[in-house]
Write a structure and sequence with these properties.
Length: 158
């Protein structure tokens, strides 16, 4: 009789221990996925054809990759060139920020559609640049952690 009580108590203790351990492991995995990571400033890209530079900042937070994108004149001397390069021309209808790993394999594709691309203008109405802020739904934490380089691709409407 004592041995069956002892067996039942041991089984109950083991069951409770497994449930608590499983809950703690699950919570730890979820916490790791949702916790904020440091902001990452990516290498600046130059686009000589547009007299422009491109800036990208990303941060993993709340289980999503958040991004800040800016397309700006290369220097204060090229503001006029930059602005005139978009006159009579539509802004890109679709941009893609692509993240790559060290071997050059694509890890993540962040589409930015024309409707979410904001035109930044100065007090005189002169174009200062374009910007976008958003979430990248197709990116995963493991891939983002392995990304070492990025590129910008764009398509204009015909």
């Amino acid at each position: 009789m004592i041995s069956s009580k002892r067996l039942a108590l041991s089984s109950l203790s083991l069951g409770i221990g497994l449930v608590v351990s499983g809950a703690l492991i699950s919570h730890g995995i979820q916490w790791n996925h949702y916790r904020a990571r440091p902001v990452r400033d990516w290498t600046e890209l130059e686009i000589p054809q547009l007299s422009a530079k491109v800036l990208l900042r990303t941060q993993w937070r709340d289980a999503n990759l958040k991004y800040q994108f800016r397309l700006l004149p290369s220097s204060s001397k090229t503001v006029q060139e930059f602005s005139s390069s978009f006159q009579g021309r539509s802004a890109p209808s679709e941009l893609h920020l692509k993240l790559y790993d060290q071997e050059g394999f694509e890890i993540c594709d962040i589409p930015i559609y024309g409707y979410s691309l904001q035109q930044d203008v100065d007090a005189n109405g002169q174009l200062e640049g374009f910007s976008a802020n958003g979430l990248a739904y197709s990116c995963y934490l493991d891939g983002v952690n392995r990304a070492t380089q990025w590129k910008l691709m764009w398509r204009t409407s015909s």
